Amino acid sequence: MSIRLSAPIEIENLLPYDVKFRIYDKTTKHDWPNNPLNKGGSTALHLIELGHLLLLSVEILDTGT
Predict the structure, then answer these.
(1) Beta strands of 1-53 (E only): which ranges?
(2) What is the mean pLDDT of each run of 10 residues along the chain (65 residues)?
(3) Is residue 50 within 8 Å of residue 8, measured between CB atoms?
(4) Does the model's pTM come out above 0.85?
(5) Are the CB atoms for 32 and 58 separated by under 8 Å?
(6) What φ, ψ does residue 63 adopt, rounded to 5°?
(7) C-beta neighbour count of 3 within 10 angstroms
């Protein structure tokens, strides 16, 4: 028997730049600000309720422009 635990949402950065992202749960009015994510990296979000309205903003860092 095996048990596999996984997060409800996983964010993966497939861009060639590092990014910062922010998630806002509009239902509970909870904010997860300024989470850095390196290029090629991913992060799991365990505290997210999939039935809630979630807003995502992404800031791309150091694009050279």
Answers:
(1) 9-12, 19-25, 30-37, 42-45
(2) 76 94 94 92 88 93 76
(3) yes
(4) no
(5) no
(6) -85, -10
(7) 4
